[in-house]
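Thread: "does anyone have the structure for this chain?"

Original post by V.I.:
We have the sequence but no experimental structure in hand. Need at least a predicted one for the grant figures.
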Amino acid sequence: MKQTQQHFLVLAFPVQSHMNPTLQFSKRLIGMGARVTLLITVSMHRRIIQKPIIDGLTISTYSDGYDDGFNDPSNDINLYLSELKRLGKQALTNLMASRSNQGQPFAGVIYSLYLHWAAEVARSLHVPSAFLWIQPATVLDIFYYYLRGYTDYIDGKSQDPESEIELPGLPLMKTKELPSFLQPSNVYSFALPAMDDHFHELSQEVKPIVLVNTFEALESEAIRAVGKLNMIPIGPLVPSAFLDGKDPNDKSFGGDIFCSSSGYMEWLNSQPERSVLYVSFGSLSSLSERQTKEIAHALVDSGRPFLWVIRDFEVKRENEKNCEGKEKKEEEGVNCRGNGKKEQKENPKEKETLDETVKEEEENQNGEKKEEEGVYCRENGKKEHNKANPGEKETQDDTVEEEEKNQKKNGEEEREGWRKGLEEKGKIVNWCSQVEVLSHRAVGCFVTHCGWNSTIEALVSGIPMVAFPQWSDQATNAKLTEDMWKTGRRVRVNEEGLAESEEIRRCLDVVLGNGETAVEMRNNAEKWKELARVAVKEGGSSHQNLRAFMNDLDC
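Reply from O.Q.:
Generated one for you, tokens below.
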């Protein structure tokens, strides 16, 4: 018997960049007449600043064992994922069984990245499931090829970043344009096994389904490149007010875990049309102080107004300053940091590791001191006293403490002056409503890390990009942006992996100039903006695809 109203269970991995599209997908289901229970961790629910109140949406929580955030001293993401799986499977089984016992089974289970175990649970209870892929179809194809027959081919070319990679149905790429998890410098051991688990679970399904945050016109070939994946484009997953306009009140994703700054919209209102450079590197990526200053010089030299999102400003500066010269743990591919965070070896761009996705960023400890000052560098940033001179311990402690205070004071004064100088030229905020900013008439260019959420939000808003990829899928997204969709220009880095201010300025001039290339980028950006809107409107490809998916579950 056909249900009068379908009820879906949707699972989101506990991080901002996963929460946004998953929550928006839930709203899309609700807009088509379904009910949704969104299952998230207790820690994620606690971090959401303003809990979403949406008719048809119920939020259910479960403990991942780290209700106050993942804060294991070893920073072992594999440990976290193992606990998430163990406790998540138990919670999911209980919730689904309870619904079934009440005669109200879920119509389907939709799970996002790193939650592949949800498919196993759903299958055991005879409930259909689908994988919600929140990156481009091209990236999923690349992972599939790598793990299903092309490992030796890709690894054989990995030492030369300029080597060309040919994969069926995909554009020609260079090694450096592949996801960072396939690069020799990758130290994130959890990523590829997790993807392999996803593909394994899909292979167990009679009718595997992958719902993709993209749209037909954008990635038509990539969507069909791997037939076994059965990818269904249902994006862009962006708030309705900035896309199809069906719900003008839907102006935000609704699950922010960062407090937005104030006054930036009023500031944008005071700026000329298409004049502002919007700069943001997302919720996970972070830059070294050197790179940040190169960007700052480029922005100031451009003479254009800018809005720059810089999170945890003081913490990041102190982290790099205090940790300079610390002993390296080369065998593990990490640096000894004041807070024990791992960083990619051979990659000068500082990144926050995925342990940051499950906890609030902690204050960095003041780290290294020389052995003659009586302390050793430890991976967790704790200080230990040199027992060789116990009689001098108290004096040394006082000296170290005084030096730390002076360094901190001097560093704070330097940063305060640097920031004030920047704010005379533009506006700096800790966080903002990005899709609202990108849709503002004053914004003319987006300097972005090319996370997929940011990339597709720029496409939906018709904003050209200066691509500044950091890790994960971002190099591939930058490749697509520059060469396939032709809506941006990627910055080139020097031998140290640093994008110099002159190079950044060159890209800004290309994108914002009046030359043929700039005009082409703006025209293409407008084209993709319109095509994205068409896709999600009534009768559009993404709208029809989602409707067909829902109808198939009722058969």
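V.I.: this helps a lot. The chain has four domains: 1-134, 137-225, 264-311+430-532, 314-422.
O.Q.: and The chain has 18 helices and 17 strands.
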